[in-house]
Amino acid sequence: MIELRECVDKLTSADEADRMYAAEDIGYANQAAGVEPLLARLLEEPSRAVREAIFGALRQIEHDKVIEGALKLLDSDDSFLRNQAVEILRARGARAIPYLDRAFREENSDRRKFVIDVLGRLGDSGTSEIYARALKDTDLNVVITAVESLGNTRQTKFRATVEELISAGSHPMLICASLEALAQIGDASSIDAVRARVGPAGELPGYLRPAYLKLLGAKGRQEDVAEVAEMIGRDGLEASVLNAFTALRNRYGNLKLPDGLSRPLRDVVSRKNSPLLAYQAVRLLGGLLHEPAVFDFVERCLEDPEKSIRIGAGQSLREAGSEEADAALRRRLGSETDEDVLQAWRGKSAE
Amino acid sequence: MMELSTDHFNKLSQQIYVRLGLQFEEKKSYFLQKRVEKRMDVLGFQDPQEYVFLLCYADPEGTEMQALANLITTNETYMFREFEQLEAFANCCLPEVLSAKQTRGEQKIRIWSAGCSSGEEPYTLAIILQEVFPQSQYWDCEIVATDIDQNVLAQAADAHYWWRSVREVPPPYLEKHFIQEGERYTVRPNIASMVRFQHLNLYDRMAMRAMRNFDFIFCRNVLIYFDDASRKSAVDHFYNSLNRGGYLFLGHSESVGRISSAFKLRRMDAHLVYVKE
Question: What is the model's pTM?
Fold first, then answer.
């Protein structure tokens, strides 16, 4: 105890390093009596480094006073204090839930939102009741935060409730969050439910399409690839469409791409806005190699200066498994020097 | 074969940055994809979305992140590794610190190579110091090189290296600062004597407190193997170990920003460095 008192005294030392060491020592002492002095110092401490050390110390102390203190910090105007408090509460795990439950019943909607932020890292044991209340909250931000959190933590038991939040009259931000969440916790029937409530991709406002395409990619059926394809020419949807195709291809190895995609996919590769998008496009072109123009294009990609395009082209040709594709790849093998590219073309796993 | 979408790549790279402080450019997506594929094979996952979820939301102890970290980082160490970062040290940071010291009439400079392994980094720093600042022989210059492993420290103190370790040393430096015997290269005594090797565990907070008054700390590609709390603790100690105006160097793709906000980020040529103001 005497040692703790000495450390508490040193929290106000003029020397920054001494204050940091004092905070660290209080943390290692792991006593409830250390919590109040640390919290009090936090509000006056000018040094960012010491404030961080104080939070480090609070994390070390196992007493529930830390949880109570962290909940109070959620009301602070200082975002650093709020964010650190959220991290502390998350780290407490299930022990924090009764305190969070109590905090969620309070009138302060900001605090309720922070409570949901914390729940997002606690898993689903004992949190369902708070989530159920959050989904009926009077503050839209709390509902949206809860929907996002349910998606991130994959609480599939809330699937139907989240589907019901989507309707033509719902706030666009809520619809968007619900679509994103359903991409995690929904299933193929969620897509039917969404279509019934707000219509297919073509009828959705532009700002909802990326989230809807994500849902199609994550939970869609093979035949949904046609709906994704319809969106390929639309402004600003390039990445979302390619992601949806890629997700469907990961889920259905033998996915057949609809006709008419070769030109827009070649355009994505040629524009080279993003190495990853170009890679995705050239990989998708692998499913269209039966078109002579596509084959020639992919073969030319083997000489592209952009490494990711060469990798994708080689993989696409290798997977085609035809004599013509193998010959194209062999012709280029001798002049390729990049080890990553060669490894990808040969199909070896990463070292 | 699975493919990472941009969405998956963004989530994974963000998570790796937050948890390990390592930055991945989109250009490296294939590199990351192959490593993720390996982990997915081990775990029996088919869909990258499952892996993204595991890493982002279901890995509270950081076990999977560590397994991935072991695949995306290289253990190999050699002299003059991350050359461009060393250029920033030699051309910008070191002259700035030396000039400030000369103004104050000080003639002492201290550098700490934390997690020095078999000694390639501290000897590199000694060579740079002597090349950039020949007057260093009249100053009190000390390079303290620490590691937790007594065996590698003993090896480092011997100062003998094979070609692989010196392959990136600029040829004039190789000739000047090494004695070659066949395939073996020995650091010349005038350079070797600038380095003091010391056993130190970066987890040992009391021992860390004794490390004070450094102008530069190099801890490159070491903290990525620490858990979050230990990484934070080590960086806090580095902060206290540095003099004001001192610099912390991590690996070129590592970042302090997510670990501590105590350091200021400063651009030096094309490089970002961390300074204690």
Answer: 0.77
Measured CB to CB, residues of chain B less than 8 Å from chain A are 1-7, 9, 26-27, 29-31, 34-35, 37-38, 46-49, 53, 56-57, 60, 71, 205, 209, 229, 232-233, 236, 239-240, 260-262
Enclosing domain of residue B121: 83-275
Across the interface, whether the CB atoms of B239 and A20 are under 8 A apart is answered yes
- Give mean pLDDT, residues A291-296: 94
Residues in a beta bridge with B111? B143, B216
Q: Which of B9, B71, B205 is closest, CB to CB, to A24?
A: B205
- Considering only CB atoms, A250 lies closest to which of B27, B48, B240, namely B48
Q: Is A92 among the domain residues?
A: no
| The pLDDT of residue B48 | 87
Contact A294, A269 (CB under 8 A): no
How close is the nearest chain B Cα to the Cα of A261, in Å? 18
Cβ within 8 Å, pair A283-B3:
yes
| End position of a domain, from candidates B21, B52, B72 | B72
Cα A342 to Cα A274: distance, rounded to the nearest angstrom: 22
The pair of three-digit structure tokens given for residue B99, joined into one six-digit string: 């000039």
Q: Which residues of B touch A48 (CB under 8 A)?
A: 261-262
Minimal CA–CA distance to A137: which of A112, A118, A120, A158?
A: A112
Number of CB atoms found within 10 A of residue A3's CB: 11
Please state whether beta strands B178-181 and B264-268 pair in parallel, antiparallel, or not at all (unpaired).
unpaired
Supply the pLDDT for residue A124: 62
In a domain, B110, yes or no: yes
Is A349 a residue whose pLDDT tops 50? no
Of B270 and A14, the one with more pLDDT? A14
Residues B30 and B138 both lie in one domain = no
Same domain, B179 and B68: no
Measured distance CA(B220)–CA(A199) in Å, rounded: 53
CA distances in angstroms from A297 to A262, A291, A309, A313, A328, listed in the order given: 10, 10, 11, 9, 12
Give all strands of the β-sheet with B264-268 in edge-to-edge order: B195-199, B140-147, B108-114, B214-218, B242-249, B271-275, B264-268
The verdict on a CB contact (< 8 Å) between A154 and B53 is yes
| pLDDT above 70 (res A271) | yes
**A20: distance to nearest CA of chain B, Å?**
8
For A297, counting Cβ atoms within 10 Å of its Cβ (0-12 exposed, 13-18 middle, 19+ buried), the class is buried
The whole-angstrom separation of Cα B253 and Cα A310 is 25
- Smallest CA–CA distance, residue B57 to chain A, in Å, is 7
Determine the Cα–Cα distance for residues A282 and A268; give it in Å rounded to an integer: 9
Chain-centre distance of CA A58, in angstroms?
A: 28
